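Hi R.,

Here's the chain you asked about this morning:
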Amino acid sequence: MPIRLDPEDTETQALLDFAGDFAGKRVLEIGCGDGRLTWRYAKRAARIVAIDPDAEEIKIAEEDRPPDVRVEFRAISLEAYQAPDAIFDVAILSWSL
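And here is the predicted structure, written out as tokens:
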């Protein structure tokens, strides 16, 4: 039997309680890791930039990406990330402090 993280969707509900509906929003996800949290809201968002300094985690996220989800993954730290013209409606992070 596979292990299912957050089987009661508590983490997902907390995310939605915090950020509201992601429909049509531009999201910056800091410390996305392997995309575990990204996939919980990705189909709703208009645009997602997901960054993490661990290139191996980004590789896993890219490999696990559902076919109908558009996410721009970047292997970069927040300090090094530069988005001069980017405007985001929501910035989220999980376990990244």
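One quick note: DSSP finds two helices and four strands in the chain.

Cheers,
M.
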